[in-house]
Write a structure and sequence with these properties.
single chain; 223 residues; mainly alpha; elongated
Length: 223
Amino acid sequence: MNERHGTDEAAADDAGGELDPREAATLLQQTRRQAQRQFELSPPLLTLIRAAVVLVAYGVVWLSVRGQRPYVGPSLGAIAAVYTAVIVVIVLSAAVFQRATSGVSGRSRRQQGAYGLAFGTAWVAVGVFQGALYYDGASHAIVYGVFPAAGQLLVIGSAAAAMAAAREDWRTLGLAIAVVALATGSAFAGPVGVWGVIAVGGCLIGIGYAAVQAWQRRVTARA
C-alpha cells in the first residue's frame, strides 16, 4: 500500500514537473533576448554618441585648418578637443563593456582581451608610423593632414572587418567596410577637406548603423 502510494506521488511529481512546450519555447526566447541585450557591446545610444563625437572632433579640426595657406596642421586647441572626445568615448565604451561582460570568464573573456590588444597595437602603430613620416621629411599635408585623418580609420576599420568576417558578424562587417571606404575616399579631398568629409561621412555612417541596431532589436523583440 505504501509502495503504491509512493509510486503515485512520484508520478504526480513527474507530471507537475513537466514543462509545457509552449512555455519552454517562451522561456527560451526570453533567455535569448536577455542574453542578446546583455552582451550588446555597442547599443544604439552609444553608437549615436560615437557618431556625434566623430562629427564634433573632426569638425573642430576642419575648422582649425580651413583656409591655411600653406597647410601647417590642426591647432593645439583642436587636438585637445579631439583627445578629450576620444577619452569620453573610451570611458563610455569601457563602462558598457564592463556591464555587458559581467560574469563572463574563460575563453570569451580571453578573446575580448585579445581583440583589445590587437586594436590597441594597430592604433599605436599608426601613431608611430606618422612620426616616421615626419622623420623622413614628408610634407605637413601628409603628416598632419591626410595620414592622421584617414590612416587611423583605414587601419582600425580593416582590422575590425577581418575580425567580423572571422566571426560571421555581417552587421559589423558592413560597418567596417563602410569606414574603410570612407577613409580611402576622403584622402582624395586633400589635407583640409579630408577632415570635413570624415566628420560628415562618419557621422552619417554611425547614424545609419544605430538605425540598423534599433531595427534588429525591434524585430527580435517581436519574434
